[in-house]
Amino acid sequence: MTTYPLENLVQTRWQNTFDRLNGGEPGITGLLNISQAWNTAREFLRPRDIREPNSKERNLPVVKTCFDALNEAKLLPRLLETFVEDIRQQESLITAEVSSFMAKYDESEDVTVVKSMLRRLVEWWKAWAPIHELGYTLLSTFNLEFQTHLFSILPSSFPSAFKKLCQSTVGAEPDAQLWGDFERLGLLDRYENLIASVCYEQIEGQVLETCVGRWNEPMLAGLRGWMADKIVPWMILPYARGAKTHEETRSMLQGIGSRFDFHVCKTLCDLRTSEIFDIIVDYPDSNCALLDLKECLQRVDQRSQLVQALRRLNRKRLLHPGADTKDILTQYVLMIRCLRIIDPPGVLLYKVADPVRRYLRERPDTIRSIVASLVGEGGDLVDENEPIQPLQTQFEDYSDPNWEPEAIDAGPEFRTNKPSDVISTLVSIYDSKDLFVKELQVLLAQRLLAIKDGNFEKERQNIEILKLRFGDAALQVCEVMLRDMTDSRRIDQHVQSQKASNLHPTIISKHFWPALQASTLNMPGQFKTIQQTYAKEFTTFKPDKRLRWLPHLGTVELSIELQDRTVEVEVSPLDAAIIELFGSGGKTAWNSQEIIAELGDIDNSSLNKAMMTWIDRGVLFDRGDGTYEVLEIATSAVKAARPPAPKRPAAQPEAPPVVTVQQQEAEQMRVYWKFIEGMLTNLGSLPLDRIQTMLKFAPGYSRTIEQLGTFMEAARREGLVTESGGQYRLNK
Amino acid sequence: MKVHIKRWHAIAQWRWDTGAADADMDDGDDGEGDVCGICRVPYEGCCPSCKMPGDDCPLIWGECTHVFHMHCLLKWIGTAASKQQCPMDRRAWVTAERKVATTGS
């Protein structure tokens, strides 16, 4: 009972299948027909070895009817499976051919081998491929099977060989058939990256070849022209083969074209980024390179790379002890100019400049260098053509129709300094401009004191220009200095008219000039007389005022009459005082002690230097026992022993007469040391911030705690204090 | 040997002759100099309302030997509270005659 329904079911199925296959034909003729059709179809599809001559006629209409019959019997899927099975059996043929070709290639490295291999593969493909009329499914199944097999047997050396083949086509006659083959074998899709990389490499090669180190002409346009001439025609085959019209080609190339254009920009951008330091050094000759870079950066988002590269290069090549401060400043100024071209809002500049500025702030002579360039000593920092603007905080002008928001990569503390000029940027390295003014004062003093002919028009001009920048109030002191110069001249004219003198002093207002070196030099003999006469005349002219000489400053022009010759010299007052000693009294030989006793407290080194000056000039000679004597007659012996000394500017003392800002500060700190010493004596040990707090009560104390820390550290090194756990204690 | 000075460019500082400080001056060793008793700025500096020192901001000498910037003192004298007295010793302010002849010698 249980088997009956099952039996029934099987029987029904059998009957149905039979009916389907037999197609309602009498007896089993239908089945026979189907079997006939199957065989024909399979025979038709069977992949053959193309090396064997294929004589079999193909009767397309017959095949077609066979397929129709199979389709009616719903046997097509089965046929497909069989077909695939057949292909698999024959695949070894292809495998053998491919490996023999590739072996040949490996030997010869000749791309034509690859080319002919691909040709051959296409022949296989053509031979095996079912005809179009049999429907798309069959074809795509075949393609899939064929390609899967092909890719599985291609050796690992094939991609590189294929790439070489592609490379060989660049610039050659377009070979449409080759690319057709590529597509047929599915190589285009599979090796798309490889083909693109061929193009990338072409671009990179071209950029490196034409652009390295050439910054004085625009490159980007040339590269794009090269792309249009050389690469685009090549691109048509791989990327726009199906295009019928010009328009179609264009639209098909658009996507890939912009990818390659991007790559051109990126490559050029990378190159210029790596060269950026030297480009900046070469500015303004490298202007074109900068414009290229600017255009590339708009296309390629590599701003942060540029910043990093430049920061790294700066660190490596600029910000180290071997570089001169002036060079760093020059490079910084060039950097400002260059980065303004690349990025007018100044975001890049801000990012790059930060380490440079911080480094410059730590250098002791930065201010001096900047100020020197401000007043025109080696003033290549300042561009004459730049409009002078007063230093002031710049506000955003939102009513400006050309206003643009800050760039997207601007940091939170980014300050727009669009309109400021180079000098303002340099000055803004420091938080306050007072330091500059101080240094400027020192420098101005040095220059003014060195002026002998009363012509200081250039300094006046400089000050006028600087006033525009720093404001009148800040430069008031300099104004007083300049007026002292004018007054001195007027006073001198008056005094000369009363009583002619060959002394022409510069009379200064003590509190408005930087501290000048003190000295106890006593001018001897006729110098003293001249000084006194002049001072007396001065007092007659200005009854309420007195003169106090700074005898060691200034210059003296002397004419020294010796027995056989006259020597004309321009020397420092100390030199003059010494020679006066020899010339005035009856005593002709002096030793150092006697000179010092006569002239006041002179340190040995400056005395020796002065003696050397005279010996060099052949006026004095060293008797050998530490005493010096006048060389009245230039003996041949001395001349032979002492060849004419190289002329040296004796009038200019090596050390500037003006005490520098640092020296002044050290001097002030000495006063505060007394306070600190007192504190530590009374209170034992103190931390740094307590010392700072207490020192703030001292009059005129304006150091930061960092400066105090440096000072205390110096004191510790000198062994004056000890430090443990942040507590300072006097060293007993 | 004979030394002739052809031209000498020297540097000098000017300072006010405050009378009392004459001795110090010759020593030449006083660092800061005296300050005006009113504005506490050195005599050779200028009073708070001036910008140029020297003849533009002169001193005034009192018979009481006290010396001030002229502008400072005049301002002081101009206030009612001053009662025309010297701010240092509260004696009536009398401007001293400067004896040019003696200082010149």
TrEMBL record, chain A:
Gene Ontology CC, one term: anaphase-promoting complex
GO terms classed as biological process: cell division; metaphase/anaphase transition of mitotic cell cycle; protein K11-linked ubiquitination; ubiquitin-dependent protein catabolic process
Keyword Ligase: yes
PROSITE patterns to which the protein is assigned, alphabetical: CULLIN_2
SUPFAM superfamilies: Cullin homology domain, Winged helix' DNA-binding domain
Key word Hydrolase present: no
Record GO terms (molecular function): ligase activity; ubiquitin protein ligase binding
Cullin family profile domain mapped to chain residues: 395-615
Annotated InterPro entries: ANAPC2, ANAPC2_C, Cullin-like_AB, Cullin_homology, Cullin_homology_sf, TPR_ANAPC2, WH-like_DNA-bd_sf, WH_DNA-bd_sf
Keywords, sorted A to Z: Cell cycle, Cell division, Ligase, Mitosis, Ubl conjugation pathway
Sequence similarity: Belongs to the cullin family.
Protein name as annotated: Anaphase-promoting complex subunit 2
Source organism (scientific name): Rickenella mellea
Automatic annotation (TrEMBL), chain B:
UniProt KW keywords: Cell cycle, Cell division, Metal-binding, Mitosis, Ubl conjugation pathway, Zinc, Zinc-finger
InterPro entries: RING-box_E3_Ubiquitin_Ligase, RING-H2_APC11, Znf_RING, Znf_RING/FYVE/PHD
Domain named RING-type: residues: 47-90
Keyword Magnesium (UniProt): no
Superkingdom, taxonomy of origin: Eukaryota
Alphabetical GO biological process terms: anaphase-promoting complex-dependent catabolic process; cell division
Pfam families, A to Z: zf-ANAPC11
GO annotations of cellular component type: anaphase-promoting complex
MF (Gene Ontology): cullin family protein binding; ubiquitin protein ligase activity; zinc ion binding
PANTHER family, A to Z: RING BOX
Name of this chain's protein: Anaphase-promoting complex subunit 11
UniProt source species: Rickenella mellea
